[in-house]
Fold:
Amino acid sequence: MLAFLLTTEALPGFGGGNGDQLSSDASGTGNGGVNGVFLWPIVPTKPEKLVSPALSHDPLEYKGLKVPLRIRFDGVYWLFRWPALKPPPSAFVAHGTPDETGFSSTDSIPLMMEAHETLSSPLHLMSCSRVDVAVRSTDRYPGTVEVELILTDSSMPMNASLSLGQVKASTTLRFPTPDNRPSQETLSFPVPDSPPITSFDGLTIRFHLQSERETLSPRIAIDNLLLVPR
Structure:
C-alpha cells in the first residue's frame, strides 16, 4: 500500500526514483515535501519482545548474560533534516522499511535517519562483550554509510547513553537481483570492559551519510540485534 501511494504521488514531492522528499518548510509542504517521517515496519502480529532475566537489586545476585540473546527489531525509523534532532510532531507517519522505501531531501540540506527500539525491561551490559546488528540492504552507493549504535538507560539522569562507535556498512546492492532480495550483513560493536552505564533499555541506530549522498536516505533496514556474553 505504501509503495502504491508513493508511486502514484499521493504523497507530495515524490520524484527521481528516490521516494518521498523531506522539506524544512514549516508546513512541510511549501516546497513539495514533508517535514519528517516516522516509518514503522509492518508487523502482522506484534511479537513479544525478547528480554534478558530481570536485573536484581543486589548486583552480586545477578548472574548476567550466559547465552547469546537476540532482540527482534520492531521499532520505528526517524527521518528528518539537519539541524533538527528528531521529526516534528506533525511528521508524516508511514509503514514500511527503509530498504523498500527511499526518501530524499528537497535541496542540499542533509537528510538524517535513525532507528529506535525501546525494550520492555532493562538489559544488563556488564556481562556483554559485543552487540551484533543484522541489517539488510538495497543501497546502491557502496562505502557511503556508517552505522552507529547508541545504548540508553532511561533510569539515569538525562537518559544517560553510551555510543559503541561507528561501523561502515559495506553491503550494497549495485545491480538488481533476479528475485529482488536485499543483501545482508552483520555489524559488530564491542562493549568496553568498564562501560559508563551498567544497563540499558533503549537502542538507537544512527546512520551517518557521506557528503556525496547525504540528501538520499540509506536503503538499509535493521533485522535484529544479538547480545553476545563475555
Summary: Residues 161 and 229 are 20 Å apart (CA to CA). The chain has one domain: 2-43+64-229.
